[in-house]
Amino acid sequence: xxxxxxxxxxxxxxxxxxxxxxxxxxxxxxxxxxxxxxxxxxxxxxxxxxxxxxxxxxxxxxxxxxxxxxxxxxxxxxxxxxxxxxxxxxxxxxxxxxxxxxxxxxxxxxxxxxxxxxxxxxxxxxxxxxxxxxxxxxxxxxxxxxxxxxxxxxxxxxxxxxxxxxxxxxxxxxxxxxxxxxxxxxxxxxxxxxxxxxxxxxxxxxxxxxxxxxxxxxxxxxxxxxxxxxxxxxxxxxxxxxxxxxxxxxxxxxxxxxxxxxxxxxxxxxxxxxxxxxxxxxxxxxxxxxxxxxxxxxxxxxxxxxxxxxxxxxxxxxxxxxxxxxxxxxxxxxxxxxxxxxxxxxxxxxxxxxxxxxxxxxxxxxxxxxxxxxxxxxxxxxxxxxxxxxxxxxxxxxxxxxxxxxxxxxxxxxxxxxxxxxxxxxxxxxxxxxxxxxxxxxxxxxxxxxxxxxxxxxxxxxxxxxxxxxxxxxxxxxxxxxxxxxxxxxxxxxxxxxxxxxxxxxxxxxxxxxxxxxxxxxxxxxxxxxx
Length: 531
Description:
Helix content: 25-40%
CATH architecture of the largest domain: 3-Layer(aba) Sandwich
Largest sheet: 6 strands, parallel
Oligomer: single chain
């Protein structure tokens, strides 16, 4: 079998598995795959994206898979190019996303030699993938894609000379039947104990429906897909440090809660009944004691008396008002202002991709619940919660959801700089409308709020954790031909967010870092005395 024929078989297999977006990075050994994908794209069978950086390519495909809810593929040449997919593969593994990593390899006869760009790519991603297949012929492909519904898979394709085809090709129409999720019996809970529903990342609307059916408070992270409706408690993170939280007898956990230490402390309490729905991802076990685990829907047999929910709502209304007053009284633009403004800027049908570290935590505290039924999608790379590839993931999420009314990304300055190549997009490439909001405090302020940010570590803090960079973001954007706004107060921020230019644009919100720890301490102190 020639390399051209094998490459076409790979593309046919991808189409048959439901892949409709493929990202490639240029190389020599993956040329047969690239030509086959180009022919398939020309025939209208798929959309092809090209990036010069394999790590960026991997996260672009990841973002497409996350927002489209369909598998996406990324294709690289051999050597270090393949290794650069590892961060995106790891994120896909821990998020349970259907990402196909296709790596071109030298033929087996060259393995173990000093042939150029030759290394051991077989099972390169270890346990991070559901399956890893060393593809020699077309018969290897069916098994290699079989586990895609459970997470990422790896196809390592041996390609020999000649690497350039001599003809063009049209793929056959894919024959894929839609897969219906397996129906499982629901776990029915008695509503009696004082219960809260914790909705972590990717919980979905079932968490909200459970809370509403039972009359329980809903403690929902921004990317849970459940932070809407009438039961969501905005300031739950602060309220978990009050006597109100001591009255909790049972917690129902849906999705992957990873944002806050108060939630982790709650889930670690030995006196609680903890009921969980098993999440997606390669490591689905919880890091805390679990009383009951269920791999299906969780419902309640009926509602409780409203006093329990009313107590949480009243405390939340009071604390939210005092929090908003505190933030509004600050003379300078704060990260909390930025989070609130971004949340308010997402319209019905809109998309928001949130970066790790402070932005998603600030959003968690400031985001008011959206009305039900307006189909906003808030997503983040929370599988491993790294800052790698965030801009690429956001671009991919926007491309994978073309019906989005408006797409935004909200990141910190270090996250923005970490994935700057995600904005290196060629003139012939699809470029979404995407407003990237950067909360720029010139360094890593997340660490200022942790133990290493304590005053006794001040001498070493900037060198080890604060990492000021003094980068001129406007000049970077100019080099990338991306419109840039720099805002320093609330009015400028609101104006910038209300006036999108179309295409990719950057709104840089300049905030302080020197007072971050004190500001957070003042906010935590607001909850003292809440009943």
